[in-house]
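Our working data are protein records whose layout never changes between entries. Instead of coordinates, the fold is spelled out as a row of discrete tokens. Here is such a record, shown just as it appears in the course material:
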Amino acid sequence: MEVVRTPRRTKRRVWISAAIGVVILGLLACVGLSVYVGWQLTHKPREPVTMTPKDYGMAYESATFTSKDGKTALEGWIIPPKGAAKMTVIFAHGYAGNRIQKNVPFLPLAKRLVDDGYRVILFDFRASGESGGDMITIGVKEKDDLLGVIDYAKRHYREPVALYGVSMGAATSILAAAEDSDVRGVIADSPFSDLESYLRANMPVWTHLPDVPFTYLILAIVPALADLDLGVSSPIHAVDRVAPRPILFIHSKDDRSIPYKESVKLYNTHPHAFQLWLTDKADHVKSFSLYSDEYVERVSAFLRSLVKTSS
């Protein structure tokens, strides 16, 4: 019986083809997983709005604002003080949060400010809470949302406007203040200094995936698919247009989500105009919970200085 032998060259060709197929399948799997993870990061489940200012003894009115894009409806509340308002303070929540920002939390802080004579506006960014929109953009388009709320406040009230934001909302507040010179000052609790560089350094923390290749794939694919320019969300490139207006940076040295050096970096751009308060032992945006009295004292002192300058 004659034995038919497969030529060595044919075998090698089969193995090379198989190896190429495995590599292609692996790349397709990585790309598919990157698209899926990117979608999950920009389409988080909405946190329900489970309480109102009434739960803290505050009178309020519901309001619908319109983003600067002219089409995205934003739901929120306006909480007036009992007398004439010293200033309107607009609160900006963090990534995947909403207007009550439970981990801070916003409503107890709002009550302290309202009792001290400030009007407070709380609202949900796009794709959060009860607002319109279907994609979280981590400051890129949220900046337009905040600018829309600022426009509403300027149209309806005579007092000056200040911004208070946490995490993504802190970064967004800096971006919005850079574009609207009527904003008198910003309180920024735990911002990042530049979205793209922050994501490059911290994407594995968010996704629990290896840095290579997933960080590079996600940052290449998602902006292209979603038509986003991550460079827009860069407070470090916006602070020059805020100064000499003041910014109070608040950040915990034990923040495990956004390193406190992000705030230090922003503060160091204009230390003569900006203020920096670093806390200890607090996790991300938890300084108010841990140091509530000192937190309110520092925020109130900052706002009083804005009112005095405005007068």
In short: DSSP finds nine helices and eight strands in the chain. The CA atoms of residues 27 and 219 lie 16 Å apart. The mean pLDDT is 92. The beta strands are 61-66, 73-79, 88-92, 119-123, 161-166, 183-189, 247-252, 275-279.
